[in-house]
Design brief:
The complex is a heterodimer of chains A (294) and B (135). Chain A contains seven helices and six strands. Classes of the chains: A alpha/beta (294), B alpha+beta (135). Chains A and B meet through helix 1, helix 5, strand 6 and helix 7 of A and strand 5, strand 7 and strand 8 of B.
């Protein structure tokens, strides 16, 4: 049985923890709003990009000279998995869920006899997979010092992936991130970057419109220009979705933690009061029985 | 009264402009071109330069754009630029930084093709810097 003093100390400590989790929750809520706005602001760009690429892709369908970024290398032996996670923990299952999805994919690819390479963006993802898949990690990119993810950060990652692709280091590239659905729901997602996974253009309605398009320079050059950009754009979108998801996950995790701490304090307080009363009763009995003995 | 059309200027970070305008001048890779209402469907990549937007009121807004493309469709003009900044917010410091980056790219280029591209990028940036200084 802990003594009264022990109980008092524990209550004080849980209260201090509760204050911290409460503060973290509020910080996450404030950051979430900003992250959400950023993610929403980036959507029109990524969507337009997708549409335009889909239009252009129609012209190249089935052609031999289609760019490799779109058609692939004709091989799928080596896979590059880009696992984007947060830099910090204390955000519930956020990092674990992304890492889990990535790990499952890596395992199934290895089981099929494919070569797997992993590129980690964010420290926590690397921490999560380094124990069993550490040997496959080719590089880790940390964004710890970056406060707000800018396009420049995504572009840097995109260029790195492209230079690896051009050097023939992999055939298929997949990005793992968490899609921000709502504050309480984040969905780990796998998105194929190379070869580009393009939405098929609506052939009925648009085929007439696309054919009269005039291109300057020609289609091939525009496509060659756009495909690498598209990689960076998709990564940027993934990072922004991730940022919003992270704050959402942290907010609900910290909300839970605050509530649990509250429950714990209640329990400890009841325990404390009960013991205090018991102690008083014991003292009284001692005095009374002492007086009676006289 | 000039006819208006829908113009959108989007960068990866935000949508800068979405409104009805009279005329837009875009710095295309193969040369500058103007877009008015009912322009035929057209698509072009853009080079670093100044994009001019003439509004209904006659006021002209200028934006510095870099990397991306312009898409003219029946619904209007959309410019997707990797970087787009109103000229009023731009300063020579930022431009100089980019010129330095471009110079490094030229120095780092491994083969002739990339080197040529990097050099072109650099010269385009320098053109913009000169144009801004003159203004």
């Amino acid at each position: 049985m802990p003594s009264l003093k022990d109980l008092r100390n524990r209550i004080a400590s849980v209260k201090a923890t509760q204050k911290i989790t409460k503060a973290m929750q509020m910080v996450a809520a404030a950051k979430l709003r900003r992250a959400q706005e950023a993610a929403e602001a980036a959507r029109p760009y990524a969507e337009r990009m997708g549409e335009v690429l889909a239009n252009l892709a129609v012209a190249f369908e089935g052609r031999d000279d289609a760019p490799k970024l779109m058609a692939g290398t004709g091989n799928d032996q080596t896979h590059l998995l880009v696992i984007a996670t947060a830099e910090r923990g204390l955000c519930g299952g956020f990092n674990t869920n992304i890492a889990k999805l990535g790990r499952e994919r890596a395992r199934s690819l290895i089981a099929q006899g494919k070569t797997v390479k992993i590129l980690c963006v964010g420290k926590k993802g690397f921490d999560a997979i380094k124990r069993d898949l550490g040997q496959y990690v080719v590089e880790t990119i940390e964004l710890r010092s970056v406060k707000h993810v800018g396009f420049a950060n995504a572009d840097e990652i995109g260029r790195k992936i492209l230079s690896m692709f051009e050097a023939g280091e992999f055939d298929v590239c997949t990005l793992f991130y968490s899609n921000f659905k709502s504050v309480i729901a984040q969905e780990p997602t796998a998105q194929q970057l190379i070869p580009a996974d393009l939405p098929t253009a609506d052939s009925d309605a648009e085929s007439g419109a696309t054919s009269v398009y005039e291109y300057e320079p020609d289609e091939a050059e525009i496509l060659a220009d756009l495909l690498p950009r598209n990689i960076s754009v998709q990564i940027f979108r993934g990072l922004l979705e991730n940022a919003a998801s992270e704050q959402g996950a942290r907010m609900s995790a910290m909300d839970n933690a605050t509530r649990n701490a509250g429950e714990m304090i209640d329990k400890l307080t009841i325990n404390y009061n009960r013991q205090r009363q018991a102690q008083i009763t014991t003292e009284l009995i001692e005095i009374i029985s002492g007086a009676e003995a006289l | 009264m000039a006819e208006l059309f829908q113009f959108e200027l989007v960068s990866p970070e935000r949508q800068l402009l979405s409104e009805q305008v009279v005329e837009v001048t875009v710095p295309g890779t193969d040369g500058e071109f103007g877009v008015l209402k009912n322009h035929s469907p057209f698509m072009s990549t853009i080079k670093p330069g100044i994009l001019k937007v003439r509004k209904d009121s006659g006021a002209v807004d200028e934006y510095f754009v870099r990397g991306g493309f312009a898409d003219v469709a029946g619904s209007g003009l959309t410019v997707l630029a990797e970087q787009a900044v109103p000229v009023s917010e731009i300063n020579s410091e930022m431009l100089n930084q980019q010129i330095r980056n471009a110079e490094e790219d030229v120095a780092d280029a491994k083969d002739d093709d990339t080197k040529q591209k990097a050099e072109m990028h650099l010269s385009q940036l320098k053109d913009v810097a000169d144009a801004l200084k003159a203004a």
